[in-house]
Amino acid sequence: MPATATQILERVFGYARFRGQQQAVIDHAIAGGDSLVLMPTGGGKSLCYQIPALMRGGAAVVVSPLIALMRDQVAALLQAGVRAAYLNSTLSYGEVLDVEARLRAGSIDLLYAAPERLLGERTLALLDEVDVALFAIDEAHCVSQWGHDFRPEYLQLAVLRDRFPGIPRMALTATADETTRREIAERLGLAGARWFISGFDRPNIQYRVAPKSTPRDQLARILDTEHRGDAGIVYCLSRRSVDETAEWLRGRGVDALAYHAGMNAREREAHQDRFVRGEGVVMVATIAFGMGIDKPNVRFVAHLNLPKSLEAYYQETGRAGRDGLPATAWMAYGLQDVITLRQMVDGSEAGAERKRLEIRKLDGMLGYCELTTCRRQALLAYFGETLADPCGNCDNCLDPPESWDATEAARKALSCVYRTGQRFGAGYVVDVLRGKDDERMRRFGHHRLPTFGAGDDLDARQWRSVVRQLVARGLLSVDIDGFGSLRLTAAAAGVLRGDAIVELRRDARPARASRKRRAAAGAASGPPGLFDALRARRLELAQSQGVPPYVIFHDATLAAMAEVQPQTLDEMATLSGVGAKKLERYGEIFLRVIREHGVDTAPGADVADAAR
Length: 612
Ligand code: ADP
Ligand code: ZN
Hints:
- This protein is an alpha/beta fold and 612 residues long.
- Helices cover 45% and strands 13% of the residues.
- It contains 27 helices and 17 strands.
- Strands 3-4-2-5-6-1-7 form a seven-stranded parallel sheet, with helices on both faces.
- Strand 5, helix 8 and strand 6 form a beta-alpha-beta unit.
- Helix 23 crosses helix 24.
- The termini are far apart.
- The structure holds adenosine-5'-diphosphate and zinc ion (ZN).
- The site of adenosine-5'-diphosphate has 18 residues, from helix 3.
- Adenosine-5'-diphosphate binds next to helix 3.
């Protein structure tokens, strides 16, 4: 009797249950239907086509946009004992012939290919000769011109429908927005396909935003207290800040690497490789980094600058915690970020319409930063989803911010901007409010203004926070061509007249560490040091085979080993992520680590050693 989908899930992948819509998608594909699968990052899209590939006759063809992604996916499948291969430009001619021969012989279940390779006449002719189980089009949003990852080759994939009628096709993406979804269905000729849409919430990611004071120190504190030894990504806006931040982190003993468009391709590839294949590497990068990074145990994503839109923010932070274990998305932001991004939009070649759209997106981002309510509710609402209750896992839920009646302060600030002629930036306006008596002040005669020194009830940090929030709320605008001069907007009139009340968020003091923070993921369970010992063994095994560590076992599986401490292969087999093949290959090796660790750390072990 042929195996059921659930049996394959258990035997091959070592998982007990399907997640979300996986089973429905799989059943639909096995029955021969086309589908469009929308699942968040880490939702488990790959199994949706990998399991039908093992159940339908012939080979499933998977279209994947990036060579590194293909290589790592195939490596992971081979570890699980699945007959997988790829066709791309990194293969020698001999290797290509070998893959082709295995395909003809029916000894490949999953074939990965880049679109341009797949659509070449040679490959199409090859597929005419063999049984194709299904076509899976991964990262299907690459077909959309509006998206950020547009790949013209993807447009040609529509030919698969005509050339291979009757073979089910499945398009998969984590892109949340409606326009892109429609474009995918249209351009891939998937009009009759069934849509499987999952919620886009990533409950294991803790979203946090901090007002920027000394961003590197703020980051360092998080690395020290919550993410020591963890892999993570730090996003910066400029190449220079990427290089400097990576350097600075290395100086503090963090294994940090840089990644940006100014480096040559070989260097970038080497760094990406170290990040994927190593343990605990921190990548400091511009947004150029991340697409196609499948690493499941990225424990934090930090933004030292404001992203351009909530779409970009959600995608970048979504690279954390694919394995479902706790992860952190932390961002530091300040008024200067707003000014810089506005300047970038304004200085770009884009048309007026596009610029307006970009400014609107930036404003959406700012609104998110200044929220006093649940961040996840706001994020999901932005993507058209409703989360009924506050999440309990964002900074605003964990440590509700105080707000204060800032009407008086707002009036002082607005009036100060007005009286100094709407020609100065935030720094100077704060100096006037605080009554800083210096040469420049006297030169402009501002030391005689009624607002001069009218704000000595708040310190400079608090005043900067007021100004920033007035900008975020559209009461002040920032002049982008000059020096970030502040101007009043039409909305400011109501506040100045005293018709409107202004409630502002009280920024937490940077040093305040009252948040209920979780312990580092994975390492939390089991006896001290065991998780690390398992991780070290995994790294050795991975390095000797030239594969990323996570294709051997996920962190979640190692954490389960540390907690349960199986003593036999049968016990080991019950853990999530331990399939038959991996049990056979690695079961004994990891059992030994567990046993030896038990001996080394058992009470009196040192005495026993000394007696030996
Ligand atoms: P996506 O491509 O949607 O980002 P993946 O297919 O890479 O997600 O899956 C994310 C992680 O979840 C993978 O490590 C995968 O092994 C794991 N996973 C997928 N399905 C299940 C399941 N049913 N049970 C447990 N883990 C799963
Ligand atoms: Zn929340």
